[in-house]
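batch job 7 of whatever, protein = PPM-type phosphatase domain-containing protein
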Amino acid sequence: MFRRKAAHHDMADVNVYTAKRLNDMANSLGELARACTDELSAEQGLTKEDGIAALETAAAMVCAGCNKCIVYPGKEQDNQYYLQYLIRAFEQKGSVDYGDMPRFFLESCKRRDEYLAHLNRGLGRATMNLAWKNRFLESRDAIIVQFKELAVILEEFSHQVEHATDITPDWEDEIKRAFRKNHIVIEKMLLLEYENQQREAYLTMRTLNGRCVTVKEAAEILEDAMEEGEWTVAPDGRTLVTRSADTIRFVEKGDYQIIYGAAKAIKSGEEISGDNYTFGQVQPGQAIMSLSDGMGSGKIAEEESRQVIELTQRLLEAGFSTRAALKMVNTVLLLTGISQHPATLDLCCIDLKTGIMEAMKLGAAATYIRSERGVERLEAGEVPMGILSPVEPVLLSKKLWDDNRIIMVSDGVLDALPADDKELMLQEFIAGMPIKNPQDMADRILLFARSFTENAADDMTVLTAGIWKRK
């Protein structure tokens, strides 16, 4: 529920119920995920039972009671080694031929062609059933992961609602008075403060005398009334305040501001880069930088990396946590078969209120943080998105300070460097660079990587950002 500093009952009772219901839903989804879990697991190949069933089917269709050779159902206990050999031969070649059968069978069986045809058909059917079973189990496991992640998302939102503080009574009179002076009437208002001290305001307002006021002007009035912090209107709202009452959402700007830079080079012989990236604010007070490297190069790689970037950004814009967003995207890629062309993802989320950066990586290259104390390297594993289920993103957390720089690169940049320890070579180059604006740094790093090769062997992308404390 919203904790209150004074008696203010407009929303509190509703949110006690909301937080409880969200938590109940999260628990239900968790129980549902556990109920779907059993001991079944994907199998790697055909089993002895599959081989015996294929032999029995072939014997029933062809042998008609003949027991002259050793290849018939009644003698499988005496031929375990041969049975395993037969299965492995089929898996390696896709069929069993005369060379895989016992000599006595070849010499005595008069219908060996029919027998081999039925045997191959039986083993082929078993292989198809195995593939469908494993695909089903993989899809089921992906759905279980979705249930679990939805439960986590609801728990996070329930926690956010429960720990938000309603500070409306502290500022209600001042805010209404300031807007009234500018001929704007506040009919309803809700002012919240979250755990990281980020504040948010919902103002239902209208103008007097039929005049119109831009929301930017309204944000400046709110700033003057609050006497501290800088405010802006949320991007999902209206642009004008008119004589018709409407609710407009305002958010407090963070203590930090961020500027970005990017530079890229396309692989020689290709017309389009397989890398994709994005940066900007997805939520009030939260900025992101994301870089995805599609498998290979060209159009297919570009489509795969773009899908990863777009899905991740949409989930973050909807309020998903970074961890939940990455796991949800990975699950979607597995279910849609994108695992044949996996893409890496490098994601940095920066809290502009606290300056804390969360970096999450799936198969991505190292991220570098340049500060007054030198260059720090953040690394993770090498598993790309859509290649394993379940996959757990690697979370790396770092506190950023005034005038720090963030550098993200795709694999193509590192691959172009001649050193054995490519990450260290790039780290030393970044340490020796002058600290300038992010775009200049991105251009310098790309130029450095390109200096070692006349023709780019892979797509190269450099994404940089500088963070500054607001004055």
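notes: The radius of gyration is 31 Å.
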